[in-house]
Amino acid sequence: MSVGEMLAATVPMARTLNLDFLETSPEKAVVAMPDQSDYHNHVGGPHAGAMFTLGESASGAIVLAAFGDQLARAVPLAVRAEIAYRKLAMGDVTATATLGRPAHEVVAELDAGQRPEFPVTVEIRRADGAVTGEMTVVWTLRPNG
C-alpha cells in the first residue's frame, strides 16, 4: 500500500475532499484537490478549511514517507501549523510539501531518547502555477511507551 493509499484509507478527511496523492517520497509530497463546489467559499474558490486540510495532508504524506520506518517506535503527530493565504485560489489546487530538516537529524534525536520536532513547508498552487497559500506544519515523533 502506498503512502497516499494508506492516508486515504486511514484519514477520512482525505477521502471526503477527494485528495489525490500524486507523489509521496521522503524528499517531496504532492497532493491535488479537484475543484468541488461542495467545498467552495463565498467567492467560488476552495474554502480555507479545505485548503488547510490539503496542505496538512501533504505534510503528513511526506512525514510518513520520510519516517515510515520509525512507526514501530514513534507516532508522528502535528504539533502546530500556520497558513498564509496569498492569492485567490480558483479551480484545482495542488500542495507540495518538503521537509524543513534532514530526516537523519530527526532520527538521530529520536535515537538519543528525545522527542524531535521538525517543520514541513507547503506551497499551495492553482492550475496557472500561482502560489495561493504557504503553510508550515511542525511535526513531532512521539516515542511509544
UniProtKB/TrEMBL annotation:
Protein name: DUF4442 domain-containing protein
Organism per entry: Streptomyces thermocoprophilus
UniProt-listed Pfam families: DUF4442
Gene3D superfamilies, per the entry: Hotdog Thioesterase (3.10.129.10)
Highest taxon above the source species: Bacteria
